[in-house]
Amino acid sequence: IHRALLSGLLGNIGFKSDEKGVYEGARAIKFSIFPGSSLRKKQPKWVVAAELAETTKLYARCAAAIDPAWLERIAGKLCKRHYFDPHWEKQRAQAMAFERITLYGLTIVPKRRIAYGPIDPAYAREIFIRQALVAGEYESSASFLQHNQQLIDEIRELESKVRRQDILVDEQQIFEFYAARIPAGIYSGTAFEKWRKQAEQTEPELLYLTREVLIRQAVDGTAAEQFPETLTAAGHVLPLSYRFDPGHPLDGVTVTVPLPLLNQIMPFHFDRLVPGLIREKIGWYVKMLPKQVRRHAIPVPQFVTRFLEWLDSCPDQAMLLAESLAAFIRSETGIKIPLDTWDSRLLPTHLQMNVKVIDDAGMTLGMGHDLTELKAQLGQTAQQLFARGAGAEPDSIERDDITRWDFGELPAETRFSRAGKLLTGYPALVDQEQSVAVRIFDTQEGAQRSMRGGVLRLLSLALKDRIKQLEKNLLVDRQTILLMSSLIEMDRLKEDIRSAIIDLALIGDDPLPRNEDEFNSQTSRARTRLGSVSQEIAGLIHTIAQPCQELKKRLTILDKSAIFLKKDMEEQLHHLIYPGFLSRTRWQYLQHLPRYLKGMLLRLDKYNKNPARDQEQTEIITALWNQYIQRLNKHRQAGVMDLNLEMFRWQIEELRISLFSQELKTPAPVSVKRLQKLWESVRE
Length: 684
Fold this sequence. Notes:
By secondary structure, this protein is of the alpha+beta class. It is built from 26 helices and 17 strands.
């Protein structure tokens, strides 16, 4: 009955407004339900009234609740339709919009999703081309889509490589390419597929984009060489990716390193980035130079070109870029540039190689610009994973519980496959206290460190009877050990004596054996040397015990006015005689300890004659010592072992002899100038 009445009473409908008890009616009128109506308290959302009577205000009389869904069918053409938010829907594969329907100004359908093609075919076609084809929101097996997207991706990658955003044309030009080929009336996936299949029968590549269409400006043809897809490091080919996004942490070049290879990679492998960026990086390094040096690098482009030509001919390709630049500047100008002139952390992000470490499944384990820090975080895991992969090989040479050399030749290198990559490992013996094991290391340095301890253990097992006899009858007398006890606890000193004798007698400076014959020969040499080495170490301890005791006593009673002297000599003694000094100091330096201690005593004797001169010379030594300590700490953090730095340390002791106790003489001439010359050969 209500639906029937609506057909004649459409002007008397109303919608409950936010205002209490008020309805919005047709043509912007407002009314209330008559107080005597049964709907007065119910207040339905939509009503129709038999009449609208105005007394004190406009009232709806004989009102009934209605469903607004009835109105669209009953009102027919009286309804007005409004369309908004036309868009592409990927799942439906067609242009869609939302429809709002009003009747006499009242919204009876607020939002309904409808196909937009029949409403505005031209605009729906434009939506289809822009969103579906240009923006790539159309799913189809059509070959032109894969071809076009791959071509666009290649050009975008080229933009990231050359760090320009003006190579790929804008989307409007791609839109015009499609619009010129797709006929009117195509605005849905169904219609497009039907037309495409017919059109491609006569012209298969009708919708194929070309580089000529997509490239706005020509690019240097050497870009592929300047920005390669891969980089070779430590014999392994590693993939590179590029990103042009200034301010983003991944801006620049990213190299992907599998975790098992992490320890084999060195900073110099990535320091030169790629050919397309190295020139810019050198330019930044030139900007960091002091002004008085920078003037020698003008004009900068020609200077960089000369340096790159020099770099290509440089025999040491393992130098960092800063080291190479410092060497080049010195060769050109004679000026020595300290490496701390350049701080790589101040470089723009895109001039620092980003290293991404992944596992076998391709998951990222760590990422950053500091390779040393990544190794500190993941290096141990990398070695374990590397060794596990090598040990899993069917013909692996890894073994446990070895007590004699019965495993034939121990190769310096071995190759095996892991996760599709051919890896190089370095076999070495590992000390397991009661036996040794053969393990595969991921670096030569790690293998060499372990190999010495493993060979020592195996030699000790082969000569265990002689070593037991040695331990029972140490040639160092108890009185000597007691004299040293003020500096080193007795048990630790005895253990250090034993370790030093075994290391020096069993191996010393001999090359490490790699097969059974070499091991047997080394065993014979070690057996004959044990006695003489024991005597040498015992004699050394005997000659340093008395001076140590005397030094300790004299420094304790030193006058307070000589506090500067006391501090310097106590520090010197601490760095000469300490727990483990016998086994940690090379014999070539160890045998000079008695002379250094005697020199300290002579210095104490002379001090009162000229304290000012002593203090002046001490300041010279302190400056050199601080220089040494700073570089030593850097080397330890980076895992660097430099024999030149070790030599520099002991030349400081010789300089002390030269300055404070010349009568003892030095094996070779020594001076501050000579030490500064030696310092130039120390790795920075």
